[in-house]
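Hi U.,

Before I forget, here's the chain from the pilot set. I'm dumping it here mostly so it's searchable later in email.
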Amino acid sequence: MGRGNLCDKKNTMFALVDCNNFYASCERLFRPELNGKPVVVLSNNDGCVIARSNEAKAIGIPMGAPAYQYDALFRTHSVSVFSANFPLYGDLSNRVMQILSEYSPEIEIYSIDELFLKLVGFEFFDLQNYGASMREKVFTWTGIPISVGIAPSKALSKLANRIAKKYPEKTAGVYIIDSEEKIIKALKWLKIEDVWGIGSQLSKKLKAINVFTAYDFTLTNDAWIKKNMGIVGIRLKRDLQGLPTLDLESLGAKKNIATTRTFDRNTNDLNYLEERVSTFAVACAEKLRKQQSCCNSLLVFIHTNGHRQDLAQYHQHILVQLPFPTNSSIELSQFATAALKKIFQAEYQYKKAGVMVQDITPEYQKQLSVFNNSNELHAPLMKAFDKINNIFGQQKIRLGSQDRRIWKMKQERLSPRYTTKLSDIIIVKV
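Structure:
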């Protein structure tokens, strides 16, 4: 595959550490009687399955399954069902990440349950034992099981982690890809639709040109990849070949910020949707100000309920290029609600909406225009908003266009916040 000295002993390797069935593992942590039994966690408003224990997977509960359609199966198999407890998951995630950060000074927190580590100068380490040490320490200190994949690149470490998790009895939860032979074997094993960064639509295109595995992808013509995937595809190909192209991303300002919600009911009430979209835009604006950034574009979307095939379906979005960079809640709310009105169709019943701010730049670098600029009075006003809300709680001061109600998600199966709420702490009597 033209890698040259790829398989020589490496000065740099990447580790991908993934918490096993993380949300389900968090729920089991304080309910040990659930070990070995099926557990699922539901999305906001108890809508769909977003996490499954291995036992839940074995009885045929798919990811994204609408909860109401599987109630009978839950009862038949005595499945423990939980509402998403994000304060608990976030706290346990922080504890896991803190422990893992001791294993390398260079880390990238990829998601709430995934972490990349860059291992520089580890050529004389026994990486199998190093990974095993991570697993033991995290489990001993937090009770959360993890899988570890180590390889010469980020994409291959993702693949190594997948193998470690797929075959725990053979790998003991740790798998190392450190030779040409292992790279080729792993690439031939991985289906193209399971490659990191390749979704269902792109995998269909690739299968149409007889690309069925990750190995096939590494043999695909660069011109085709660049035309259909851009430079990101070329970098992915190189990374899969074991030529590290994707480096760790810094923990700096986010490139995109989104706020989305699934509603507790279907609705075609424009006023209701305007209130929600305004609130989403304000949340994005607050996050922009927190990281001292502005955005130059804004995307608004609305969706019907894809699980209700008896209803007419409509999925639409609109991208708005802003006339000036801004992080003003007032301005972003105005732009977002105006965009919503352009895509709203009254004949449909909507279940989800969201706002995403894009083209983010540092606040101090915003380009001023001769004709259109953000209202200069908004900056001190937003500063006052944030200060008051930080002291007295979120949404104490709101725009008139926002929700006039304090929305509470449907969480009928919520577990206690064992680690973040004093009244929920377990008391052990001896």
